[in-house]
From TrEMBL:
Superkingdom classification of source: Eukaryota
Domain annotation Protein kinase: ranges: 1-78
InterPro entries: Kinase-like_dom_sf (IPR011009), PAK3-like (IPR051931), Prot_kinase_dom (IPR000719)
Protein name in UniProt: non-specific serine/threonine protein kinase
Keywords carried by this UniProt record: ATP-binding, Kinase, Nucleotide-binding, Transferase
Keyword Kinase: yes
Annotated organism of origin: Pelecanoides urinatrix
EC number assigned by the record: 2.7.11.1
MF terms in GO: ATP binding; protein serine/threonine kinase activity
Similarity remark: Belongs to the protein kinase superfamily. STE Ser/Thr protein kinase family. STE20 subfamily.
Length: 78
């Protein structure tokens, strides 16, 4: 299984942000970060293929519960 993140390239600065995200994911391999697999240009969208992580994103957690700053730092570190 893989996860696909779709980024629109029509917004201002979106191409630069997409390139930065690809470089960050590609160059920072860690067991604590999902693995970047490949990217595809589909019409005006960039599709990023990455390792599938069941359970959602850190952003999902932060929307669902209130965490203190230290708790957020510990989750990010792990």
């Amino acid at each position: 299984q893989v996860a696909i993140k779709i980024m629109s390239l029509e917004e201002e600065m979106s191409e630069e942000l997409a390139a930065n995200e690809i470089l960050a994911m590609r160059d920072n391999r860690s067991p604590n970060i999902v693995t970047y697999l490949d990217s595809y240009l589909v019409d005006a969208e960039l599709w990023l293929a990455m390792e599938f992580m069941d359970g959602g994103t850190l952003f999902d957690v932060l929307r669902a519960v209130y965490l203190e700053e230290g708790q957020i730092g510990a989750v990010c570190r792990e």
